[in-house]
Structure formats: C-alpha cells, structure tokens
C-alpha cells in the first residue's frame, strides 16, 4: 500500500484526508492518506526513511516556507514563490531525494480567473505574508495587478500595516485576498481587521480558507454587496495537481 499525507500544525480543519480517502476508494487505489500534526518540522529525509511506503505529501501552515531547507530540487513555481505545498519522495535504494512543488499558484489562478473576467482590477490587498501570500502575489504579477501585503508587522516596501488601510486605499484596491488563518474553524468568530463598512459591490473578497465555507471575512463582505469566494475550489484543484505530481514517473 502506498502512503501519502499532509504535514501541518493544526489539521482538524483539513479537507485532504477525506478527499483522498474517497478518491482512493472510488478508483480502487491501494493507498492511504494520513494527517501528521507537528509543532516543529522534523528532518524530512529522516521522516521519509521512517515511512518507507511514503510517495509524497502535502504541506500546510506554518511549514510551507520552512520545508525549503530540506528540498533537493524545486519546481519553477516553488522557486519563484519561495513556498512549497507538495513534496514528491523519490527513492534510489537507501537514498532519499525530495522535490518541492507549489500548486497554490495554479489553484489560485484557475479559481481567480473567472472572478476577474471583464473587470478592470488595478490593485489588490493580500492579507498576510506567509507562503500562500507569496503564491497569490505570483499570480497577481502575471495579470499585471499591483498589490500590497497587509501584515501586523510590515517590514518591506510592499507591505503595509492594517491601520494603514484607509478609505482611500479601500477605494483604490478592489481585490482583497485573505491568506491568514483568521476565521478558520474552530475560530470562526475571527476576521482580519479591515474597514468592512467601506466595501462596495465593486470589491472582490477571496478567502483561501474553506472551513467554514463562509468565514466572517466573507460574510461581512457579502453584506456590503461584494463578490465573495472561498478556497474550496482552489483546494480541489491543488489536490488533483498533487496527485498528478506524485504519479508522474
């Protein structure tokens, strides 16, 4: 039986376990998908040796950037974003070779594209500055959409603090993407601190969170007439792209 799985800190919210279990059963694939919760990232070569049937695994918060230390090779999107959410385990006898991929980019792009079709979006706010935020940034660059990261501790030129999101900023930046875990189950009463009362029907709010399906961030946007989208479709695309990577010879 082949083994796959997900590495992260808090995985009770995870969709991946059920998704792959149903996929394996429906297609009669002799494989299992496990959830590995951990506080700190282990040496991933040792981790792969400890699980000899492991063919690949997904990576989620907060390890998407930290896993780079253990990668022997990176795909182009992973290199561009500095973020890995899929790892392929390649074995040659006792040797372990780890290749890191990023499917956040293709997942976000395919989900965003229908939302912005026919709209003239010039500027976007990316809430957060972690691995997923940089994947979002990669897609926005491709489409010529100027962006700023919004973070609690702005350290770089393209970053701003939440207190800097003024009425003028809200009027100019019509796409707002939440890449933080704020609002994720079970903390459903949390939301990024932006001035929701300034949202309009011209705004698009995209939340990478998929559990709950409507976060407080999206709910507040919907009440102001904004177009809203959660991360479920993006996650399904990511899952299928992961499977393709693991099955490639």
Give a verbal description of the structure.
With 249 residues, the protein is an alpha/beta fold. Helix content is 32%, strand content 24%. The chain has two domains: 2-102, Rossmann fold; 104-233, Rossmann fold. It is built from eight helices and twelve strands. The protein has a six-stranded mixed beta sheet with strand order 2-1-3-5-6-4, with helices on both faces. The protein has a six-stranded parallel beta sheet with strand order 9-8-7-10-11-12, with helices on both faces. The relative contact order is 0.13.
Helix and strand element order: EHEHEEHEEHEHEEHEEHEH
CATH superfamily of the largest domain: NAD(P)-binding Rossmann-like Domain
Instruction: Write down the CATH topology of the largest domain.
Output: Rossmann fold
Write down how many β-strands occur, each being a DSSP E stretch of 2 or more residues.
12
CATH class of the largest domain: Alpha Beta
Taken from the alpha-carbon principal axes, the silhouette is elongated
Estimated share of beta-strand residues: 15-25%
What gyration radius follows from the Cα positions, in whole Å?
A: 19 Å
CATH architectural label of the largest domain: 3-Layer(aba) Sandwich
| Structural class by sheet pairing and helices | alpha/beta
The profile of the biggest β sheet is: 6 strands, mixed
Unreliable runs: none
Distance N to C terminus: 18 Å
Q: Strand order of the main beta sheet, please? A: 2-1-3-5-6-4
- Helix percentage range: 25-40%
Number of helices: 8
Number of domains as seen in the coordinates: 2
What's the rounded overall pLDDT mean? 94
């Amino acid at each position: 039986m082949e083994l796959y799985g997900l590495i992260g800190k808090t995985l009770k919210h995870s969709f991946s376990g059920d998704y792959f279990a149903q996929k394996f059963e429906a297609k009669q694939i002799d494989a299992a998908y496990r959830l590995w919760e951990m506080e700190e990232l282990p040496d991933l070569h040792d981790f792969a040796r400890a699980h000899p049937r492991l063919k690949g695994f997904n990576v989620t918060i907060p390890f998407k950037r930290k896993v780079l230390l253990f990668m022997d090779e990176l795909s182009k999107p992973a290199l561009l974003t500095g973020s890995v959410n899929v790892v392929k385990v390649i074995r040659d006898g006792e040797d372990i070779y780890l290749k890191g991929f990023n499917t956040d980019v293709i997942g976000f792009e395919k989900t965003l594209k229908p939302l912005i079709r026919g709209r003239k979006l010039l500027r976007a706010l990316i809430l957060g500055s972690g691995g997923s935020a940089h994947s979002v940034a990669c897609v926005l660059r491709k489409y010529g959409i100027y962006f700023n990261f919004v973070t609690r501790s702005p350290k770089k030129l393209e970053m701003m603090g939440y207190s800097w999101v003024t009425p003028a900023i809200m009027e100019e930046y019509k796409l707002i993407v939440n890449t933080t875990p704020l609002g994720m189950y079970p903390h459903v009463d949390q939301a990024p601190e932006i001035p929701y009362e300034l949202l309009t029907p011209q705004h698009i709010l995209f939340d990478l969170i998929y559990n709950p399906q409507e976060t407080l961030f999206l709910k507040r946007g919907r009440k102001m007439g904004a177009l809203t989208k959660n991360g479920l479709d993006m996650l399904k695309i990511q899952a299928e792209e992961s499977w393709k990577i693991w099955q490639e010879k």
